Sequence to fold (832 residues):
Amino acid sequence: MSRGVTRRGLFVGAGALGLGAAAGCSAGGKSATESTTLGATTATARSVPFYGQHQAGIATPAQDRLAFAAFDVVATDRSDLVTLMQTWTAAAAAMTAGKQVPGGATSPQAPPQDTGEAVGLPAASLTVTVGFGPGLFDKRFGLASRRPAALAELPALPGDQLDPEKSGGDLCIQACANDPQVAFHAVRNLARLGRGIVQMRWFQLGFGRTSSTSSSQETPRNLMGFKDGTRNIKGEDEGLMGSFVWVGSETDQSWLQGGSYVVTRRIRMLIESWDRDYLKDQENVFGRSKISGAPLTGKTEFDAPDFGAQDATGEPVIPTDSHVRLAAPENNAGLRILRRGYSYTDGIDPVTGQLDAGLFFIAYQQNPHKQFVALQRRLGSKDSLNEYILHTSSAVFACPPGVQNAQDYWGRTLLT
Amino acid sequence: MSRGVTRRGLFVGAGALGLGAAAGCSAGGKSATESTTLGATTATARSVPFYGQHQAGIATPAQDRLAFAAFDVVATDRSDLVTLMQTWTAAAAAMTAGKQVPGGATSPQAPPQDTGEAVGLPAASLTVTVGFGPGLFDKRFGLASRRPAALAELPALPGDQLDPEKSGGDLCIQACANDPQVAFHAVRNLARLGRGIVQMRWFQLGFGRTSSTSSSQETPRNLMGFKDGTRNIKGEDEGLMGSFVWVGSETDQSWLQGGSYVVTRRIRMLIESWDRDYLKDQENVFGRSKISGAPLTGKTEFDAPDFGAQDATGEPVIPTDSHVRLAAPENNAGLRILRRGYSYTDGIDPVTGQLDAGLFFIAYQQNPHKQFVALQRRLGSKDSLNEYILHTSSAVFACPPGVQNAQDYWGRTLLT
Fold:
């Protein structure tokens, strides 16, 4: 077995029976299908369809774990980019189906085609999503005229304390899965396949909802202990996805139609300070009750906030500088984004000796300057949460449309 | 609800019915019991008994995720240490049962007793294991005469490239769980409760076997793609645990009887070099087949290696410098250790631009100098694996015996 060898031998039989991972697929990975591995019938073992109108990993319900990498392109020829995208596409198609990286003959006298640490593990709902940074559209590859206007570097924003070495990048890969080893394996193998063409610039691990341990927890909590994502766009809401997430006919660059933009922000939480804050103050910062997640004007998590409500002294019940008020679509001309962030912990800050932990914020949207930048300008200048957070990394990428089939590849509409 | 408040309200009812997490407990956490949370009936949701002859987290089957922290003690009074251990014990007993951190009245005008990010999550098989470093036995606390001889700092060893800031420590906490947020929550809350008495020195996250996604994968793979742990001691093997892991009557310090020693080593893998190595060479380095995990003289993973077997040219089939040969008990006067390590990935090495990833090696044993040091002297000087690894952090701690009941606390036998 060489090309197309499966992570488990079982997949071979499954394919022959027509029960492969692509069965029942639909665009955007919304209907994850059961994989056919024995002993792995839980939600965590499923495979998400790779091919479709949109890339998977955007509308796909958030998996448990994240491995995110940004790369600089070190090659200077556009044909190298095409080769890279074709290679990455084939590898991602295989890995998201729970198979090993394909390509070429294997021999005991050659390096293995796949690094092997995911052998025996199921697809684990792996999605791999690619994006192109503004730098890719400089002079090197003759792509300057194809840069969408909305793919401009983000401006300086209130709250920025960015580390330039952990920001930006020509390309990005978002790998999400319900198993950290599967997510890491995907990024590591794509980095390996890209040697000589790309160099990894920064890398971030994250963890999020824990569906495998808590199917009843509908909204995960961030590391401040608050539910995060109550009012987020749902991937299956095609109306909101079309209005706020997918790039459509409004774009100045038709190659990006069916794609999206992703903004990433590494938002460090000053958790030692936060942990010393009073419960009531914490709740005023978010505008929500900590345990229930209800807005301060409601009783349950999904109650709509009543921004007009006042207390006995005439003060707003949901403070004017609370996060829920400042971020609410009602108070931002209806603006929305699709958030898909993960918590992170990266050891100890060597300067302060405190835990370096927080939120790796990921947001998909139709236009980052009209959406994320507008929201962050407002939040960054007024949000009482700012006392407890720092934005330490920032990046923006245009994510091309989905790969249609095995002959297609990521970025074909841009690179040809 | 204040003291004893549960992570889920459901636990309150469960306790009243006598179905609490301590039901059916036995020493050492070997018989994990089902928690009673609704919608969380998988193996990942169980709670591991906290009280027993030995600390849990040693013989306990390895959970999926690790959060490991080392601390320096900044207080100078032994009574502060006693207070800390009593506080930590009560908090760990609650958290491992899936409850919030207890203690004191909660008020909206006070910081919450628990940081809250694990509310709604089950116990997830959390174990919390404490150890005392050699530095604790200096002049500060009057404990110098209580230091076991075996709790000496580890000598310089072949392969060391240690970062002193990420090595050592007066105390350690190993938190393992099947949910990363639960493991992180435990360390974070213990660090918070220890403020003014301890300062975190270093912190390491890890991930390991993924029982929730792959119940059929009996031996997890390391980041070199090889199965790791095939010949490890099983926690339920009481004979081997008694001979090689638990401290018994052989110790010079009776307070440690029923305890163990832990050695931690952050072993970075040079995975970019490894990934370019030929499959056959990789297999010769380990002395095993990559996919099956079988020794080169066998057909299946659990076949015993035949160290005498020769090939047609008279060379040993399992090379003389292979890892399996050098580490084998047969070739080390029967010496064994209980390994409980986790893979890690910590972003990019800023010097080389390569992924900083590898194994956070954790090994429990009766005497680190007679066991780990002897093995590592042999491996570090001869093992062909050394070309691909660096030891970047090192620590040793004595882990006191288990906490007997709610009146007992970690380290009582030492501190009183």
In short: Residues 228 and 264 of chain A are 16 Å apart (CA to CA).
